[in-house]
Every structure is written in C-alpha cells, then in structure tokens.
Amino acid sequence: MPQLGRTCSLVQRWEKRETLNNESPTTSGSIDTIPETSTLSHTSRACAMAGLFVLRLMPELIVVALLYGQHQRQMVHDNMGSRSENIAMIFNMGAGYCDVCVTATTGGVSQIKALSGSYIGGEDIVQKKMHHLLPNMDSLYLSHKNNEMKAMGLLRVVAQDAVIKLSSQDILLIDVDLENNLRICKVLGRPKFEEVNRKVFEKCESLVEQCVIAARVDVDAILVGGCSNIPMVKSLVLELCKKDEAYMGMDLLEAVVCSAVLEGAVASGVSDLLGSLGLLTIQATPQSLGIEADGHTFVPIIPRNMTMPTRKEMWFTTTRDNQMEVLIVVYEGKEKKVDENCILGYFKIMGISLAPKGIPEISVCIDLDASSVLRLFAGAISP
C-alpha cells in the first residue's frame, strides 16, 4: 500500500454567508482534494478527526477538469471559444504521485476519457539528487544519530534547492559543509540533472503516452503541480501533445486550489454571471478494480477508464473440496501479480455448504459511485 508519508492532501475551506433576520449564520464545509483514489479513506478519516464537514472528496485531476470546463464555458459566453467539444490533457505531478487524464468538455460538462497514474513525483527526484551529491549516503548514515539526522536534513534542503534552481538556470554551484570532515563542493548542470532522473522522466513520458494514445485527438496541454515546472517534464509533455506551449488559463501551483473553490461554489449552489454554475465532471476509474484469484493473480472486475458510477459482477468458485470459507482480497491496479497492485481491503465469506471444488458459485460485485466510494457485495450459492 502507498505510505501515508507520500501523500499530500489539500483542504480548501468553502464558506457561504447568508443574511436572515439581521443575523449572519455561517455554514461551512470543505472540499478535499486527494492525489489519487487509494488515499480517499485516509483523507476522509483525517478530515473527520479534524472536525471538518466534508462537502466533496475528489481527486485533484477531476477538480482541475471542472475548472477547465468553466474556462471553456466562459470563453463561449465571451464569443472567444467554440461551442464544439474541447479536449484537454491534464498532467499533474506533485510530491509523491503523478497522474494524467484526458477530459472532453462541452456545455459545462467534462467527461474523463482516459486516466493513468503512478507513484512517482518530486520526492523521487529529490532522493536521486541526494544520492548524486553523496553516492555513499546510505552507508554513511546507518545509525540515525542526531548529528547524522542533522546532516541528512541539510543534504535534503540542498537537494531540494538544487531541483528548484535548475528549473530556471542551466548551472549551479553546490558548496555545503555536512560536518564530520564531510564537505560537498560540486558544479551541477541541467543535463546531468536530467540524466540522474532519466527513469523518472521516462515514467512520466509513459503515462502521457497512455492517455494521448487513448484520446487519439488533438488536445490542450494543462500542466499543474510543482514538478510540472521542471523544464524536462514540461518539454516532454508538450512534445507528446504536439504543442508549442501549455494551456495558459491556469497557474500550475494554484490550479488545484482554484478548482477546489469552484467545486465548493457548485456544491453550495452559488450563481455566477452566466446563471447557475451548471458544471459537471463525469469521472472514470483510474485503475482496474478486482480481487486476488488462485495463483496470486489479479482478476479485474471493473477495468480502468470505465465511466463512473459503475457496477460490475463476476462469478467465481472454490479451489478445494468441501471448502467452507473464502477470503476475498480487493486490489486496485493494472499488474497481473497482486503483489504489484494496491490492496484496498479484504473480508471472508463463511458458511459455504460442503461440495466438491468448482461446484459452489461465488458472486463478487463491485459498485463504484460518482464520488469514488467503493462498495463490494459478495455471496455464495451452493447446490
């Protein structure tokens, strides 16, 4: 499962004030955005512990697609845009997750056509830069003493600063004293930085290719997330989308925040100059949802890129004679081996009537609503 330390949730508070009988009651709620759907339950529990009333809990890409729909709707109103369908590819790369989607927008309705994502991000880039600056870092700092932790923290700050500065300049001088007779003095160039992080960039390229190929159309390229400011990331996305420049209607660092505010307005029934904010985003499943079958293989029940809400059922059977119980383990992912996918949960079906293997029928049904809330139903039918 993804570590909680690698997820980063943004909570945008939305407040609606009304005046009634000379009083000004305030009703407040939160629009919570998550990097990807497997962190939904963790974020939901965190919000409950913080005392937040959650209006919506949505993936970051989905709220950005909503903002793109609002932009296109406004352009049509201003006679600057087309009433036909507009297609955009949204690339979002943050600290620990990178995801890409293709959205089709017309008349304020955005439909997600394709989705792909992977656990790569700024943290991977920083770690690779730290190992580049100090190749024997892991062997030097094994005991995790206070002075070693301090040196690691300093090295991390230097690596983060190098990533940021090499996004705007071609060369950088690193000179840092890590104490204990250890000093790093290096000249870093952008080509070397790109070489060190080649595998990360190749993974980004693969994610974009999956969505662009699935879309098979000309798209606007929308880049959001802090890592989208890295020149290599920006250039490979634009090259694959066959664009000279990115979509200029959004700030890459503020797009998710602005989108969350817009979603709060939609959820609260606020009107704009065009009337009601009649905006809607039809989501799709970012990964396949399924269970573990015999041989530790992953059997998808709901395939990726299925329009939500959706509901699918599949039938299974026992693998042993007189088997009275079955453990159902639910996974999210795209790999054939279950160990390479993300486990979502598990439960046990008990009380199956005694019968030879292959005779009992076991139904597993996965229901996924428009808010990405997953419900699983299972039961056994014996002769």
UniProtKB/TrEMBL annotation:
Database matches in InterPro entries: ATPase_NBD, HSP70_peptide-bd_sf, Hsp_70_fam
The record's GO molecular-function terms, alphabetically, read: ATP binding; ATP-dependent protein folding chaperone
- Cite a single Pfam family from the UniProt record: HSP70
User: What keyword terms does UniProt attach to this protein?
Assistant: ATP-binding, Nucleotide-binding
Please give the name of this protein: Uncharacterized protein
What is the organism field in this record? Kingdonia uniflora
